[in-house]
Structure formats: C-alpha cells, structure tokens
Design a protein that fits this description.
single chain; 166 residues; SF0329-like; globular; 46% helix; two-stranded antiparallel ribbon; alpha+beta
C-alpha cells in the first residue's frame, strides 16, 4: 500500500479531537547508497517520535562493538547470549526501523480495538490510545501499558486530556 493511502486510513481511525494535531511523516533518501528511510510523528507540529534507519544502525554498531548486542542471521540486532540479560534489544531502547513501524501501521488497519490494546507491538498500542473506537473505560483499563513506550504514554495523555476537555 502506498504511504499516502496508509496515512489517510490510519488518520481516519484517530479520534476527531486529535486528528488535526497528530501527523505521520516519512521520507526516503534516494541519493544515498541504500535509500534509507526515516519516519517521524508530530504533535502540534513538534516532532515527538522518530524511527530512523541510520540511527538504528549507528546505535547498533556502537553497542555491537561494545559487546552488548550482536546481529542474527537476518541482520537484526539481538542480545548476545553471552551478555547478561540486563542488556536489552534495540527496540526496547526505542530504536526502531521505519520499515517495522510501517508494518505495524499496516497491521493496525485489520485489528479490532481490543486486539490493538492487547498487542505486544508498541505502535499498535499507541495507535489504540488515540483510536476513536476506544472509549474512556477501555482507556482507563489500558493505563498500565503507558510505561512500556514513550509514544504509548504520550498518546494516552493526549487522549485523556482531549476527553477531559470534551
């Protein structure tokens, strides 16, 4: 699916009170040797989240050279089994690939609101926090999820403030 179509379909799920405040952007650096991508989310015009191929790879190389993370056979960053379990995956450190975020956005289109709130994917849960199909009761039950990712916490707070103002 083209980005413009995906973006408009995702925006149609956002509660009307927040639809004009939240926006999703993507770019591709076509003249770079690998056409790397960058995806970012803005709230009221300010960037609040970024998923960048370059940041992900650079941070991974830094940790890999320090011995914290290694790459699996698919090129993804994983915890080296020889390293203590206290070292976490890059995604848990909020370093995400734009492709993974795009996959999450696409998957969200086919989920019910309850499935989205129960998802293990932080982007799916974050979108559920601002979904027009999710009411105050379900949001209050999902409050415990706000510690998982900064985007979940931000979208939860935005939605609760929008509900309070209504």
């Amino acid at each position: 699916m083209q980005w413009s179509k995906l973006k408009s379909r995702i925006r149609s799920f956002i509660t009307p009170e927040l639809r004009d405040r939240i926006d999703f952007h993507v770019t591709s650096y076509r003249r770079s040797h690998d056409e790397a991508e960058k995806l970012w989310v803005t709230v009221d015009g300010s960037q609040v989240f970024i998923a960048s191929w370059y940041q992900h790879q650079f941070a991974g190389a830094k940790r890999t050279s320090a011995g914290a993370l290694a790459r699996d056979g698919r090129g993804r960053l994983v915890r080296d089994p020889a390293i203590p379990a206290s070292i976490r995956r890059a995604e848990e450190l909020e370093l995400h690939l734009p492709q993974d975020v795009g996959d999450s956005l696409s998957a969200y289109l086919d989920l019910s609101a309850d499935e989205a709130l129960r998802s293990s994917d932080p982007f799916v849960v974050a979108l559920a926090m601002i979904d027009r199909r999710v009411g105050r009761g379900r949001l209050e039950k999902a409050k415990g999820r706000t510690g998982e990712h900064s985007l979940i916490r931000l979208f939860y707070e935005l939605r609760m403030s929008a509900i309070a103002e209504a």
